[in-house]
Specification:
Elements lengths: L4 E7 L4 E2 L3 E3 L2 E8 L2 E7 L7 E2 L39 H5 L5 H11 L5 H9 L17 H4 L7 E4 L4 E9 L9 E6 L9 E2 L2 E2 L8 E4 L4 E3 L19
Antiparallel strand pairs: 1-5, 2-6, 3-4, 4-5, 7-8, 7-13, 8-9, 9-12, 10-11
Length: 238
């Protein structure tokens, strides 16, 4: 053997192989260490059995064939978790456990019929709990408010004083029951282009259209906001 120098890269152990790695005009074989497998270069050009390696050598591609039948990578065991046998607990065994989420939930519901995990987390964090709004089932939900809004009116939507024009008023297939107002914003503050699940209700550039509940819309004289407008335009100064 001639004097050898240690390469900068490192490698992992994959299995048996019979081919040396070319490193320019040298050959390489692995040397195991506490952090993996390091490659060591040597001017010797004889064949040696060695472990297959993957190294970060620049300008080289190494193809590894794992020939070890007992290797964990054989048959895709490192990629396909479906091949790994998993422990499954029966429903009866889970029900008999003293400490389980099922028992914890039953205890909390017995103390508070309106208990939810979200409510529990808010209590632990010391922040107010805002229960979700009840699910809307009435097809005429907010109809009385929607009847006061007409297509073509200028409007603003809260929160945020988002301004735009009313383009549609009515029910929308694919959204919860009730009435909706379709808007074309002055700025790209929306979530669609006036269509919902393939059905078009009005036209708007992508990102300018939105559907909001009528109680969030206020119609009136709401011109587009001029971000560059100045108070000096009043004529008090020149």
């Amino acid at each position: 053997m001639h004097a050898c120098t240690e390469d900068e890269g490192w490698a992992g152990h994959l299995g048996e192989a019979k081919t040396l790695v070319a490193m320019g005009d040298q050959l390489a074989w692995p040397v195991r260490s506490a952090v993996g497998v390091r490659t060591r270069a040597c001017t010797t050009h004889r064949s040696l059995p060695f472990w297959g390696i993957i190294t970060r050598l620049r300008s080289y591609t190494i193809h590894i064939v794992d020939t070890d039948p007992t290797s964990a990578s054989a048959g895709g065991w490192l990629e396909d978790t479906a091949l790994v046998e998993k422990y499954k607990m029966s429903d009866e065994d889970y029900g008999n456990r003293e400490e389980s989420y099922r028992r914890f939930k039953a205890k909390k519901l017995a103390e508070d019929p309106e208990w939810t995990l979200e409510k529990e987390m808010c209590i632990k964090r010391g922040v107010p709990y805002n229960p979700p709004a009840p699910k809307v089932t009435d097809p005429d939900h907010l109809k009385d408010v929607a009847e006061k809004i007409s297509v073509g009116q200028r409007c603003k939507v809260e929160p945020g004083d988002r301004r735009g024009e009313v383009c549609y008023v009515g029910r929308v297939e694919g959204l919860p029951p009730g009435y909706w107002v379709g808007l074309r914003y002055d700025e790209p503050l929306g979530k669609n282009d006036g269509a919902v699940k393939g059905k078009r209700y009005f036209d708007a550039p992508a990102g300018y259209g939105a559907f909001v509940r009528p109680d969030k819309v206020e119609v009136g004289e709401f011109p587009p906001i001029d971000e560059f407008a100045s108070d000096l335009d009043s004529g008090d100064e020149i």
